[in-house]
Amino acid sequence: MATVLYITAHPLDPQDSVSLTVGKQFIEAYREANPTDEVVHLDLYKENIPQLDADVLKGWGKLRSGSSFDRLTDAEKSKVARLEEIVDQFVAADKYVYVSPMWNFSIPPVLKAYTDATSIPGKTFKTTKSGYVGLLSGKKALHIQASGSVYSEGPLAAVEMGYSYLKKILRLYGIPSMEAILVEGTASSEHAPAIKEKAIAHAKEVAKRF
């Protein structure tokens, strides 16, 4: 049995979001194909994800200098402990499915905060004399991303920082490749329905082998 983190980063309901609609169809098909796997849905807009603020940085600094956890302030304890929970849950999973829209060429802020929470030395990667070494080899990842225009090729490819960012982060963790379902061109009212239906069909196909 595998554990799948289904990580969504959109504030709307699936019926109002192309990325969530495709993601919902994917995860339903995945559950049907893998009935014994555990799927954990993380709606990042409803999760407590501490920012890397002064409390976190000071708390981490105290721990690195040898202070005990009890010496941290209440705010530092709360945020540092929550970040530990997030990364431990992430490390324990076997597969990751990210679902997000492209906003301003990139990912929503809550998803960036989540990647900050999971990018922890000694947990998801380590630093050696020869560079970074990922600690999560053998795991799988998928990104479902919807965008109004086409960014996978053509003149806008150079400014695509959503899927490309997550792919680099997962590579840092030791996951060599991240599969993608890119739902592009949804701003076209004429072609959007067909684009969405094609993406749903693709998602169901990917779900059977993911």
From TrEMBL:
MF (Gene Ontology): electron transfer activity; FMN binding; oxidoreductase activity, acting on NAD(P)H as acceptor; oxidoreductase activity, acting on NAD(P)H, quinone or similar compound as acceptor
Cofactor(s), by name: FMN
Keyword RNA-binding listed: no
Substrates-to-products reaction catalysed: 2 a quinone + NADH + H(+) = 2 a 1,4-benzosemiquinone + NAD(+); N,N-dimethyl-1,4-phenylenediamine + anthranilate + 2 NAD(+) = 2-(4-dimethylaminophenyl)diazenylbenzoate + 2 NADH + 2 H(+)
Top-level taxon of the source organism: Bacteria
Keyword NAD: yes
Protein EC: 1.6.5.-, 1.7.1.17
Enzyme class: oxidoreductase
Entry keywords, A to Z: Flavoprotein, FMN, NAD, Oxidoreductase
Residue ranges constituting the Flavodoxin-like fold domain according to the UniProt record: 3-205
Cofactor details (free text): Binds 1 FMN per subunit.
Residues binding FMN, per UniProt: 17-19, 102-105
Function according to Swiss-Prot or TrEMBL: Also exhibits azoreductase activity. Catalyzes the reductive cleavage of the azo bond in aromatic azo compounds to the corresponding amines.
Family: Belongs to the azoreductase type 1 family.
Stated name of the protein: FMN dependent NADH:quinone oxidoreductase
Organism for this UniProt entry: Cohnella zeiphila
